[in-house]
Amino acid sequence: MSLRSSLTASALLTALLFSATAATAQVRITEVAPWSSGNSAVEADWFELTNFGSSAVDITGWRVDDSSASFGASLALNGVTSIGAGQSVIFIESTGAANDLFRSNWFGSASYAGVVIGNYNGSGIGLSTSGDAVNIYNASGVLQANVSFGASDASSPFQTFDNSAGLNNVTLSPLSVVGTNGAYLTASGFEIGSPSLVPEPETYAMLLAGLGLLGSIARRRRNNGSLAA
Asked: pTM to 2 decimals?
């Protein structure tokens, strides 16, 4: 195996590994229910965060604001300190009193343990049904994720805004549809959504496949070099 071939394979592997490392902090807002405070048994708005990266993200000290997009006016995200790779978590505008009701409403049991729920509460934030935004900041005030949305669903069954694709800095328009991206109709028949059920992104799967392929190429080149020597 030539020195140039060795360096080329090493450079490609390093670049791909760097891309994987850079992807570890890809936390995105993947679902929003701005109508939930007035049109749901939960009586509290909520949104979902998903980690599209390849390792856990520490969200200690992270905060949320609406369309005012002000870190100074933002509220603390409580109850969740880390989001694992590929994991989705829910944040409800509540002190925690709505958490059991949320589980009962969406999963049929207040003791359902398959979803991680955090909370935010305080004055100055309220997701408007006529249009608003969700802005997520880290503890240093750096914007990590943002989505905006127009008027929400005005009639039952109420549909959440679906961003399973993990798009960032966009205006959401797709609404959750039963059977798409894990969305379903609640037992009450009043709501459609997919809390804590975001599919693995295709790009993440491709990245892992790429790492495996590149590793295989590097091994084959090393073996060929050994045989040639």
From this structure: 0.79
Residue 5 to residue 228: CA distance in whole angstroms: 14
Contact 221, 213 (CB under 8 A): no
Residue 190 burial class via C-beta count within 10 angstroms: exposed 0-12, middle 13-18, buried 19 and up = middle
Q: Which residues, 6+ apart, have CB-to-CB distance to 205 below 8 Å?
A: none
> Which domains are delineated in the chain?
25-196 (2.60.40.1260)
CA–CA separation, 147 and 160 (whole Å): 13
pLDDT confidence of residue 203:
46
Q: In the beta sheet, which residues pair with residue 175? A: 161
> Which helix or strand (DSSP H or E) is residue 103 part of?
helix 99-107
Residues 53/28, Cβ–Cβ less than 8 Å: no
Q: What tokens were used for 118?
A: 């955090």
Backbone angles phi, psi at 159, to 5 degrees: -105, 135
* pLDDT of 115 above 50: yes
